[in-house]
Amino acid sequence: MADSKKTQIKNDLAKLESCSDLERSIQLAKQANELCDPTLPFLHSMQYTEGDLDLSFYFSKSYNLKNIHKEEIFSLFKANMYESYKNCPWGWREKKKRSEMFHQNARYILVRQTSSKKVLVAFVHFRFDIEDLTEVLYLYEIQLKQEVRSKGLGRYLMNFLETMAIYYNMKRVVLTVLKNDNKVINFYLSQNYKIESYSPKNSFYYILSKLLIKNV
Ligand SMILES: CC(C)(COP(=O)(O)OP(=O)(O)OC[C@H]1O[C@@H](n2cnc3c(N)ncnc32)[C@H](O)[C@@H]1OP(=O)(O)O)[C@@H](O)C(=O)NCCC(=O)NCCS
Fold this sequence. Notes:
Radius of gyration: 20 Å
Oligomer: single chain
Strand content: 25-35%
Bound molecules: coenzyme A
CATH architecture: 3-Layer(aba) Sandwich
Number of domains: 1
Helix content: 25-40%
CATH superfamily: Gcn5-related N-acetyltransferase (GNAT)
Structural class: alpha+beta
Order of helices and strands: HEEHHEEEHEHEE
Distance between the termini: 44 Å
Largest sheet: 8 strands, mixed
CATH topology: Aminopeptidase
Number of strands: 8
């Protein structure tokens, strides 16, 4: 067989292999995102009791959230992020943001006071998805009310998400952060997140990620 033909076959096989790798990644992300409740294996960790915090976690798919809960989530997001969005090229586009936040693929962990009042104090919005051709847990939002910040809850939630992502064989946790938010960037760097190679160079945001290592 001519060398050029051999190279052609080798290239075709490599393409097929990368297609089937991608197909496998898509399936893994899809299966994890379709689980009724991916937090079930971690029920023992669905709480945070440290210092004056006594909090309980609740998983929900966006389409199972009642309107009243969507409004609680959105008003916490708005209280935290309105100024930052308004002052960056994204601008404050409420309708667009609501449709992202309550997209049918959105998955939530709601953090509420354990007391009878059950006030929402934090939430994470995440999805199991494909990013840069691999299966990842994409963290869309982590939002804590002012009064529960700097008490270790953010770090606990990040660890929780990473543990869950490893359990479902995701390769990385990925997120986007505004460049002008030094405090938040420092928070992620302290959790060993790194700037992705494909994070846009001259943009107002970074794409950060953490490679997940499975303990065997
Ligand atoms: C960013 C956020 C999630 C962090 O959660 P948090 O509970 O306040 O952070 P933690 O108390 O868990 O801090 C964890 C670690 O991060 C580090 N850290 C926190 N704030 C930091 C800061 N301003 N600078 C440097 N490191 C910081 C601390 O070293 C801490 O480590 P330690 O526990 O060893 O001291 C939270 O502050 C928040 O919701 N902010 C507003 C919403 C927002 O901007 N979300 C992110 C959108 S991308």
